[in-house]
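Field notebook, page 291. I keep forgetting to write these up properly, so this time I am using the form the group agreed on. The chain and the ligand, calcium ion, are recorded exactly as supplied. Prediction of the bound pose follows.
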Amino acid sequence: MHARVAAATTTALLGGTVLILPTSSAHAAADDRGPAVVAHRGASAYAPENTLAAVDKADDLGFGWVENDVQRTKDGVLVVLHDATLTRTTNVEEVYPGRAPWKVADFTAREISRLDAGSWFAPRYAGARVPTLSQYMNRVSRNHQKLVLEIKNPELYPGIERQMLQVLSNEGWLDPGHLRSRLIVQSFRPDSVRKVHDLRPGVKTALLGTPSIADLPEYARFADQINPSYTSISVGYVAAVHAFRGPHGNPLEVLTWTVDDADTARRVARYDVDGVITNRPDVVRRALRGY
Ligand code: G3P
Ligand code: CA
């Protein structure tokens, strides 16, 4: 993902001087040198997760990459939200008492649009809404940001992969430019990742989790990245993942999550990860200067 300078890979002799030429690694979504920094659920340490305010906050802080989660309402509208229920991040219990357990899939998009998705985080975000995927894509486009989009709980929403790809297409996100460097679709469920790849082979995909190395040949057929928790990786694991090539012929990449402190950010950078997914992108960026 990053355009790390492989300083020693290419040298040339010119007039007796040794020039060291930079070569970019095979990562298509280059942000800068060092691991890419991805704002998790938007810049979610500073604004309510998975809201337009959170992706705007990431933009304000200067971050191009954001990560968000997609699910589906009762009437079939895709919305951006992490949990399978609305209780933690909205005032659903207050607005709709008696509708326990307040699952996303039990509410219409219109009902969800009435909810306050910001007050739980801080009073100044009162009135923030749960965005539909279309609203959200509009904002990410307006901000010229890049997106790691997670299909959350796909087992609850049959056909969500095709539907999500249709929204992405409608919003202009499946053109060659976006596919080349602005979009990654990920899931913890291999079947869901495989489905996305089969439906639109040009989309860059990621499997969340830390699969065993023995399973990587299978996953490398349809996933370009393996994205594990930072608590589960080692330098050896990252190197082993990098040794495989994904469906587009490039070495598998590793984006690790959710890294919110400087020491851990530096540790995973030493492991040579391609990206760091973080609620505190500013903290990680500062820690990684020089990588
Ligand atoms: O992008 C990685 C991370 O988002 C996966 O975990 O639970 O925060 O969606 P979660
Ligand atoms: Ca996620």
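OBSERVATIONS:
- The chain has one domain: 26-288.
- The two ends are 14 Å apart (CA to CA).
FOLLOW-UP: compare against the apo run.
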